[in-house]
Amino acid sequence: MKQKINLRLIAVSVLAVFATVFCITLVYYELFQEQVKKDLRTESMILAASGLSGLAENEDIAGNKDLRITWISANGDVLFDNDVSNLGNHLDRPEVQEAFQNGIGESVRKSDTMNMKTFYYAVLLDDGTVLRVATEARSIFSVFTSTSAVVFLIIAIIIIICIAISQVLTRQLLEPIEIMAENLDNTSTVAPYKELTPFVTRIREQHREILAAAKSRQDFTANVSHELKTPITAISGYAELIENKMVDENQQIKFAGEIRKHADRLVSLVNDIIRLSELDHKESVSDFSKIDLYEIAEERVELLKNNAREKNITVKLTGLHCMVTSNRGLMVELIDNLVQNAIRYNVQDGLVEISVKYSGNQVELKVSDTGIGIPEKDQSRVFERFYRVDKSRSRETGGTGLGLAIVKHIVELHDGEITLHSELGKGTSICIKL
């Protein structure tokens, strides 16, 4: 970045120098030409006032090679020229024609070499003759060529100065940005330039999100390790006791049941972890179409009623047939997790109510229970992975601690809303709008 800024500053400086030199040369040459024409007019007025009868005898005039003087008769014949003899008729010269018509005439002609210009000024005298004076001056190309060595030396010096200045300016420009970049976590460090404030704010937000995501992954990895370790340790312990014949036949049957229970829990954990990983990659979820949410809820409630019978829990579905744009498998997971939680953490002879209805331009799914409820301090965290209000009860009932995390992911995939209302000892209500 520094190199690019330096090169661009130097390029701008070089262009500015060349443009300045070119413009100044043009202005200077225009002034120079005006001065030459003014000098010719002055010379002609002096000569006309001094009389022209003695031009040939005047040595100063005859020997002056810087100023050419030509005296032309009324019919165009050359009466005198201090530079060239035996000249032809001059009536065809534009400055002479203009002088006969308007009293004065001017013209500029380039020499064959293209390095010199001849300036002509002609004036009509009282006796009907024309006095013409001329001088040669360098062309703009010639002027520039003759001064090119000095000009390029000056340009080289200016470029060197510009390079040094660009280095200093670049360092001064980027140093505050580099300092700020090194202190992104320090919110007291403000953006060095107000134009960078939105950019810095966005970068800091992304930086915080990246750190939070990294911490979340780290916590998730630690929790996964801990959650998997518990059933694996139990399975290993029971198997070792059976292997070493340290239990009687009746206990072997009991331990086999415990091994199966922990193996089932292990399978559930692995399945939920894999599902969460899939949901983390939104692009892996496709096949969205219009589906009837009430129809899916009705189907899942019938299947889950068997789980509720053990605790004599009533599962009730109400509402309307509402269409949502979703993936059927996702909606099955969503309803299963919510209803299973409502059953799992309910009380004996409790009630689980599921309702599906329209709420404005959204479809509302609500699952309520008459269970144990969630303490207020825990309500904001129940959608976190592996977070449990009562860890021992969750493991006893077969919960993995990932059900509500999966629900939250599914809702986010639909850009939906999820709210929770719960009172300790009275029950919990989770409302989802899609």
Give the overall shape, derived from the CA principal axes: rod-shaped
Please give the CATH class of the largest domain: Alpha Beta
Report the order of strands and helices: HHEEHEEEHHHEHEEHEEHHEE
Question: In percent, how helical is the residue content?
Answer: 40-55%
Taken as a percent bin, the fraction of beta residues is 15-25%
Radius of gyration: 50 Å
Q: Could you give the order of strands across the largest sheet?
A: 2-1-5-4-3
CATH architectural category of the largest domain: 2-Layer Sandwich
Question: What would you note in describing this structure?
Answer:
The chain is α+β, with helices and mostly antiparallel strands. The chain has 3 domains: 2-143, Beta-Lactamase; 190-280, Helix Hairpins; 286-433, Histidine kinase-like ATPase, C-terminal domain (Heat Shock Protein 90, 2-Layer Sandwich), CATH 3.30.565. Helix content is 54%, strand content 18%. The protein has helices at 2-50, 59-62, 94-102, 140-182, 197-243, 249-280, 293-309, 328-344, 391-397, 403-413; strands at residues 68-72, 78-81, 104-110, 116-124, 130-138, 289-292, 314-319, 323-326, 351-359, 362-369, 417-423, 427-433. The strands form 3 sheets. A 5-stranded antiparallel sheet has the order 2-1-5-4-3. Strands 7-9-10-12-11 form a 5-stranded mixed sheet, covered by helices on one side. Strand 11 (417-423) and strand 12 (427-433) form a beta hairpin. Helix 7 (293-309) packs parallel to helix 8 and helix 8 (328-344) packs antiparallel against helix 10 (403-413). The mean pLDDT is 80.
